[in-house]
Write the structure tokens for this entry.
Amino acid sequence: MYEKIGEKMIGWIIYNEQDANENKSYIEWFILEAKKQGIDLQLKLRHELVIGIENGKQTILYQNIKITKPHFVVIRTIEPFLQLYFEQLAIPVFNNYETAKICNDKATTYMEMNALQIPVVPSYFMHKAALPESIPFPFPFILKQTNGRGGKEVFFIHNEIDWEKAIEQCANHALVLQSANVVLGRDVRVFIIGKEIIAAVLRKNDADFRANFKLGGTAERFELNKRDQNMIMKIVERFDFGLVGIDFLIGTNGELFFNEIEDVVGSRILSETTDINLLQKYVHFIKKRVEKQ
């Protein structure tokens, strides 16, 4: 259990350099909220962090200097091995290895959701090197790379020409084909901390089939009904989440279909649609979790 007299809780937040530059205000806000709760949260850039094994022990170097391990780590990169490495050092990691490993692969996540009997639109899993001779969907449909994020590597396929162009652009060989029989340009994001539903927002984009805020969409508060809350809690109970965003497509009858879980989720749309201080809540959650371990 953490809690030593006179010792300050120290945490790391790990980013790639480019993402750190793009999310500077978010990082500063995170560090400030941590400071308010007595935590020294330090930014660590991934390319300056070296991890490995030396003389039978796991070793951490930062800027080529051996460094004392922190009390916890918040990982904002997509590299599940990093979570695994710190977990084997008995360091609490947010989000944890299982969440990062499963949720950053769309096909694996859909399989998990299907096992939980969570509604998912018809989906087929394929490999770029072994595509079928005939496409299992009528046009139009959606093509995704399994490791895509933020609406990137997602293609709306109208015809054979779109299909061929999209396949050429896919750098990742693992693909998902999905039915487009949903309300395009609309989705619902649900923010989760631990086992708690914090809030939900409706994302809208009238200029694109993707509703992502960063792609020019707008957002508004969304009220979940009891049925949807129960469905979401089935997902929440399956995982040991820190902070995630669970995204749902909207069916033609208004029903929700699972779309993806954002492991490295932001908070901009929640800040613009509510007065909820998501990072204050998240830091409080982290602090309590670390103190118990």
In short: The first strand starts at residue 9 and ends at 15. The chain has three domains: 9-94, 101-118+183-281, 123-179.
